[in-house]
Amino acid sequence: MPRVSKFTLPKLVIALPLVSALLVMSIAAVTRDRLEKGISATGCCNAGRLHLPDIAATKTPAQQRTLTPEMYASRLNFIAAVQIHIVAIIAAAVVGLVLMYKKLNLGTQSWPVRIAFIIGIASLFALLLLDEQPSPALEMLEARTVATEFPRVHLLRFAMEQSTVVAATMLVAAASLLLLPPKGDPLAKLKATSDGYHRLSYLLNAGTLLLGADVLTKAVLMQWTESYFSGADQKSIHTLTERIVAGWGVYDSLLLAATYIPTALILKGRLKAWTAEGQLTEPPTWFNPKWLAEGPLAELGRIAAILAPFVIGQAASALRLT
Asked: Which residue of 2, 16, 91, 166 has the fewest C-beta atoms within 10 A of its own C-beta?
């Protein structure tokens, strides 16, 4: 009878979360680039020709401008969102680093070099391949509104986006390390896989917090830009900003799903294989038998976590925070 636990191409399997995330980002990048530049060969409909309503405040000297309650409230909301975002970035980076540290072989003298190598590759991958390209419409709107009062808002947004990308890359790298083929007897393999499946929940929670905070920051920034307009112009700008935020919500949820779902499916398959091979009469204390037959409620919770960035984007579009 063939061994149930045999997996094919184990060395390639660990790259699946990375490949899935790359696929989502590649599709998004190509699609966004094509649509932003315009479908037609003449480029008649590219975002660079977007017409924004005039803002009276931009024609008024800075020392003579008045700060409306709506503008001030939007500024306070943005500050609060940035604080939440910073905490989420730190939390995700710590979770990613800790999980990568635990999965490395610390029995040799080369482990600091391995950690530095993984962090360096993850950071380089993030900065070169996962670099977020903001919408030209977003940059144009930001320059016409918020940047007139806060010139460094672009640098702040850039720093937050890059930090988010680096932290997200650490989580993707940690998810890949969870798929390292376990060694030893069936019981040892089951324990290693159980630990990985348990730690995956930390990755999902950290990723949800990180990407949800990312969408929230963008939503609040867009609402801040809306406060510079009034009447029909504000409604027109709101239509634009809600679509920008909703698009980022879809992208972040897809990225989260591309990382979590393949990792969870492979780990659960290994759990079933090692359990069947080990022929356990009584489950160990570190093993939860419910993992093998999780009901709809458990799956619903994970689906909700994956969809959280998308839901935040939709909610922020429908409800004003000010």
From this structure: 2
Tokens of 301: 């919770």
Rounded-to-integer distance, Cα 125 and Cα 191, Å: 31
Residues 303 and 209 sit within 8 Å (Cβ to Cβ): no
Asked if 95 and 171 count as a contact pair (C-beta separation under 8 A), the reply is yes
**DSSP tag of 60:** S
The pTM is what?
A: 0.81
Read off the amino acid at residue 198. H
Nearest to 101 by CA among 83, 84, 119, 88: 119
Sign, CA torsion 308/312/313/314: positive
Residues 6+ apart with CB under 8 A from 55: 144, 145, 228, 229
Structural domain spans, the chain: 69-318
Residue 173 has a CB neighbour count (10 Å cut-off) of 23
Judged by DSSP in three states, 214 sits in helix
